[in-house]
């Protein structure tokens, strides 16, 4: 977890050292959540990329292990009580679906599931179950006799919010603020990304370019 107040104060200090409040709390909250989602979504692209290259035997420096640590925060499990269930409201990406005896249920696309179901030799069975997520955000398990299990997925980060005791003031209200849910190592990256977004909105090319350069440098270091 990353303190939203720490990030906010760093962003203010870097964006305008002489005019505190250059970025309003309302603007900051918009930028903050965009930055958080950008970083969160990048985890999945990086996982795909690093999965193609050899790792190493050191868990504290292996790229995939580091990404898994960051994603573990968002790993969530929901029990299923029917063969058709709605996706959780905070759903972002599936991990797996298991039966009650912890057998893995294969995930297929809607088209693949329909094709498999129509074949007498490929039709889903209790020993070979499948599931798919339809256009109505419903989890469908086949055969229909499977009515319970556990759905594992990555949830979305909670919406971060910096709040003050008085509107327009900078008196931090910790009770009504929501911190970033990202791993503590992402604090600097959050600051950089928020500065970049602020630079675009405030039409400050220098601020945007500096933030962009720092962001690219961090990405290159992580992928070396």
How would the blueprint of this fold be written?
Blueprint: H1 4-15, H2 25-50, H3 63-72, E1 75-80, E2 84-86, E3 91-98, E4 104-107, H4 110-118, E5 130-133, E6 138-142, E7 149-155, H5 187-201, H6 205-223
Parallel strand pairs: 4-5
Antiparallel strand pairs: 1-7, 2-6, 3-4, 3-7, 5-6
Helix pairs in contact: 1-5, 2-3, 2-5, 5-6
What does this structure look like?
This protein has two domains: 4-71 and 158-223, no CATH class; 76-155, no CATH class. A seven-stranded mixed β-sheet has the order 1-7-3-4-5-6-2, covered by helices on one side. The chain has 224 residues and is an alpha+beta fold. It contains six helices and seven strands, in the order H-H-H-E-E-E-E-H-E-E-E-H-H. It starts with a helix and ends with a helix. Helix 1 (4-15) crosses helix 5 and helix 5 (187-201) runs antiparallel to helix 6. The chain is elongated, with a radius of gyration of 22 Å.
Largest sheet: 7 strands, mixed
Q: What is the chain-wise order of helices and strands?
A: HHHEEEEHEEEHH
Return residue spans where pLDDT drops below 50 for at least 5 consecutive residues: none
The helicity comes to 40-55%
Shape: elongated
- What is the count of helical runs? 6
Domain count: 2
Q: Determine the N-to-C terminus distance.
A: 26 Å
Number of strands: 7
Strand content: 15-25%
Instruction: Decide which structural class fits the backbone.
Output: alpha+beta
């Amino acid at each position: 977890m990353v303190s939203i107040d720490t990030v906010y104060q760093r962003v203010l200090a870097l964006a305008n050292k002489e005019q505190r409040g250059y970025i309003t709390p309302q603007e900051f909250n918009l930028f903050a959540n965009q930055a958080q989602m950008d970083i969160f979504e990048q985890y999945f692209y990086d996982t795909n990329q690093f999965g193609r290259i050899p790792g190493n035997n050191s868990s504290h420096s292996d790229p995939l292990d580091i990404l898994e640590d960051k994603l573990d925060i968002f790993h969530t499990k929901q029990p299923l009580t029917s063969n058709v269930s709605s996706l959780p409201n905070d759903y972002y990406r599936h991990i797996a679906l298991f039966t009650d005896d912890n057998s893995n249920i294969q995930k297929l696309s809607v088209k693949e599931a329909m094709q498999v179901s129509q074949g007498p030799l490929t039709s889903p069975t209790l020993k070979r179950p499948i599931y798919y997520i339809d256009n109505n955000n419903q989890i469908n398990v086949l055969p229909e006799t499977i009515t319970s299990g556990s759905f594992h997925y990555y949830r979305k980060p909670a919406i971060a919010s910096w709040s003050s005791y008085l509107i327009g003031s900078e008196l931090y209200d910790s009770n009504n603020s929501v911190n970033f849910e990202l791993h503590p190592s992402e604090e600097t990256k959050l600051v950089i990304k928020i500065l970049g977004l602020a630079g675009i909105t405030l039409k400050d090319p220098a601020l945007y370019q500096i933030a962009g350069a720092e962001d690219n440098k961090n990405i290159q270091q992580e992928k070396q």
